[in-house]
Prior knowledge:
Alpha-D-Glucose-1,6-Bisphosphate, Chain A, domain 4, seven-stranded antiparallel β-sheet, 3 helices
Amino acid sequence: MVDVLTDIIINCPYEKVADYAANPENAPEWYVNIKRAEWQSEKSVVVGARIAFKAQFLGRELSYVYEIVEYLPGEKMVMRTANGPFPMETTYTWEAIDDHVTKMTLRNKGIPTGFSKLFTPFMSVMMKKANNADLKKIKNILEKTY
């Protein structure tokens, strides 16, 4: 099993961080590996919404569909693969440290299958590295615009 937890402090109000991060259309801007995100349902961040992603990871192109399974605006969003190379769940949480500082947490967990199963330990290390880069990128974007 892969279970990667990362977090970062962003000098920006939590509402702005949460609104930006929860919008799948912004994912290609701040996720290093995501190249495209397309709504497969109505363009609304609600439980049941589906988004198709195209990504590059470990030199391979990946296509998968995430479904939003839990959404508490400004607090938490959980997405799970509806289909893709292996079952994965991504959780975002946002916590106000004060009026202008937010702690954002990004967690990815899943169970690699097939050929990917052989690379589970390596995959965890690479995902942590990618997640840290993603959080640094979203921090940079939001702090510049705030």
